[in-house]
Amino acid sequence: MSLIDVDGLDVHYGELQVLWDVSLEVREDDSVVSIVGPNGAGKTTLLKTLSGILTPTNGRVEVLGQDVTEAPSDDIVERGFVQVSEERNLFGDLSVEKNLRMGSFTKREAFEENRDMVFEMFPVLEERRDQKARTLSGGEQQMLAIGRGLMAEPKVLAFDEPSNALAPQLAEQVFETIEEISDDVTVVLIEQHVDRALGLADRGYLLENGRIQTEGTGEELLHSDAIKEGYLRG
Ligand code: ATP
Predict the structure, then answer these.
(1) Quick one: CA dihedral 164, 167, 169, 170, positive or negative?
(2) Could you tell me the distance, in angstroms and rounded to a whole number, from the CA of residue 86 to the centre of ligand 1?
(3) Domain ABC transporter spans what residues (predicted)?
(4) Which residues form the pocket of ligand 1, taking CB atoms under 6 Å from any ligand atom?
(5) Buried b / exposed e across 29-43, counting CB within 10 Å, b at 16+?
(6) Atom number in ligand 1 closest to CA 47
(7) Chain centroid to CA 160
(8) Mean pLDDT across the chain, nearest whole number?
(9) Looking at the predicted structure, is the pLDDT value of residue 72 above 80?
């Protein structure tokens, strides 16, 4: 069964067309589906369209069985599509624990159980549970953003450039965490770290200039000429 089914998607900002005839699928049996491509390719725009923030000019977008153009974004979270955005969108003046509570608004009854699961995954967040989010390091903020996403018990967790602005060692930790999460939750991973993102992926898509250029298994894409020539030099 498809968790996400996108067919013939066009998206514009005003007159400017940013996505062209994009089709992709995320299936129930996928652990990780990666969408890779350069700056400005339209990756964030695609994610915003999946979560119903942007409305397409053409095409069909089904997320967890519902046409997102007809359902507001909070319904999408309720049904299990949760996004960890590039900006992390934390509440800087609220504590770590309160940020986790904000993530559990669709699953309030399970707050304590899910919080403890997040603390088990990220012990540093438990140590800092009363600290304001804005005083955390960049790596800790990323962990909190991921933890907050998990509080909603997602079926699909979508990451927008989770390694962005992190030192290599922290980025590596984030990828390891994503791999762990993908045992239980289907992950959509948007990344510029092409080798790492495709290494984790069951399947992947290369998005360039707003179009899907190549698709295949992670392994196939890693060995494709388009990826080798454009993204894996040096
Ligand atoms: P990055 O990795 O830099 O975030 P991206 O692949 O996520 O890039 P998008 O952010 O989706 O790319 O941007 C795709 C194109 O759409 C870019 O040319 C960008 O300038 C343009 N764009 C993005 N947001 C807007 C907006 N609100 N209004 C007008 N144009 C926009």
Answers:
(1) negative
(2) 13
(3) 1-234
(4) 13, 16, 18, 37, 39-45
(5) ebbbbbbbbeeebbb
(6) 11
(7) 5
(8) 92
(9) no
Cα separation, 107 vs 155, whole angstroms? 13
Task: Please state the ipTM of this predicted complex.
Answer: 0.93
CA of 128 from ligand 1 middle (Å) equals 34
Residues in the chain: 234
Buried b (16+ CB within 10 A) or exposed e, 76-109: bbbbbbbbbbbebebeeeebbbebbbebbebbee
Architecture, CATH, for domain 1-80+154-234: 3-Layer(aba) Sandwich (3.40)
**Most distant pair of Cα atoms in the chain: their distance:** 50
> Whole-angstrom Cα distance, residue 94 to residue 163?
23
105-164, pLDDT tens digit by residue?
A: 888 899 999 999 999 999 999 999 999 999 999 889 999 999 999 999 999 999 999 988
Give residue limits of the domains in the chain.
1-80+154-234, 85-152
| Contact by Cβ (8 Å): 21, 6 | no
Helix, strand, or coil (residue 215) = strand
